[in-house]
Write the structure tokens for this entry.
Amino acid sequence: MTKNVYKYPLEEVREITDLRDMLRQSEALYGSRTAYLTKDPIAAREIAPRSQEAAELRIDHKRPYKPVTYGQFAKDVRDLGTGLMKLGVTAQSRVAIYAETRYEWYVTYLAVVSGLAVVVPLDKEQPANEVVNLVTSSEADVLLFSKGKKDVVDSIRDQIPGVRHYIGFDLPEQGESDLYFWDILKEGAEAYQAGDRAYDDLPIDPEAMQILLFTSGTTSNPKAVMLSHKNICKNLMGMCSMTYIGPDDVFLSVLPIHHTYECTCGYLCPLYRGCSVAICEGLRYIVPNMQEAKPSIVLVVPLMMEAFHRGIMKKVKGDPELAKKFKLGLKLTKGLRKVGIDLRRKIFSSVHENFGGNIRLLIAGGAAIAPELMSDMQDLGFGCIQGYGLTECAPILALNRTHYFNNRSAGLALPGVDIKILDPDENGIGEIAGRGDNVMLGYYKNEAATREVIDEDGWFHTGDYGYLDPKQFVIITGRKANLIVTKNGKNVFPEEIEFLLTQHPLIAEAVVSGKERKDGDSIIHAEIFPDREAVDEDPDLKGLALTDDKVKEKIDQVVKEVNSGLVAYKTVRSTSLRDSEFPKTTAKKIIRH
């Protein structure tokens, strides 16, 4: 079991009992400071919600970010909550949100979760049939959605009869019967100003279900994770005690907001710590938004970190003179750091300016990330740490610290969290289990599934395999569900081999699996998506299809090199190529099966 050894003193955090308490404290502490940076002129109060401009609104990417203060945000939360109460939303209601990251999403989540009803964030990429499934499974009776999701919503209305109220984030077209978010907020504001304080007095049980989050990979019987205020608040206090996050920090929100990683760490955490959050306009606008908002912290998944790194290296390699200076700069800064002088940000200032010039911390999560990539970014002066969590843990179990980290690990257990390895083998590898106040209440109306993952002593069985190193860092080796067991009983973790394969420039993505033979044994098979740019940079391969035999010959040579460093039962025995990237979840994880 982990021992809470953090090397450096933990950061001071203020006690919060629930998310309403958190918002009230933040409003009192940071009322006039900027909570959000938005390009939506309605949220920024530049135009009236029911004006002609609102009806014709198209987000203009040339429009500068405008601030919304903590005071304004807290008022909007109270006003919307009051308006929803007048509409008939009660503690028995389930309020689903089906939209992209935007200011209205932030307001809705906290207005609902603060004692009013149970909030149900939905993946904005869910197709119509899955939206029906999730809305029905959660028993949602209120659905808020954006204009971009209206066609999907319109196509399923007759299939979700339990929904009593449809509320659009955008102004409904003339003749439509849907309610309008800003009308409800305005009515709530008028009632609140007239003395209606019923919303403020709603009771909150910190240990009761207030949030329903669906795990990825939904099926006909999707699992909805039940979380409480206590789960989230303990997680917020724990993560913020591990690494400093303060009022001068600016986050850029890039990841899907429905996902617990972004919701807890990229939305609620900044709100707790007095930071500002700039809303990214989309993946293609990440760099321009960085240059404008000048964020200091960005939450990323490995694919994003890889893209940042690839962009930097491509620019360097494209200019021989620049490459020479770059190599010299790395050598110089590494030498100076040994004597306590850090000039990384100054020497590599042009790299930093491309990302806004203010990045101090990139926090990676969602999947394992190459330690070499982390080291490369750190050598350039970017603070990089990774953590480990699951939706069922609200979500963080372990986190590296800015001054005490192991790039090969997922981090140290959060304060108040215990981690142990179940049934470790001769190498100390077993299933990772976690216990603490952040562990979910269970799966909604699915006691059997809950019992499968939470034992009688309160340990949550993560389904991930790994071990604890001597310093108590959590090292993940792979998913239990992906484990390949050979005929002679050897365990093979596909992720280990995939990592080695994708370190080569020719391989963009790889999925390793067990391929059954006639004798009942499994051989290791790798399906590989070659990197288009790397293929074209090879004179022998330029312009060839990614599945061409010549490309496969080169890939097979890479596989042979990887195999030379593996024990015999782990070696890749067959390969196949694909001409398109693997399908992924909205959290940018490869869908393996």
In short: The radius of gyration is 25 Å. The mean pLDDT is 93. Residues 141 and 163 are 4 Å apart (CA to CA).
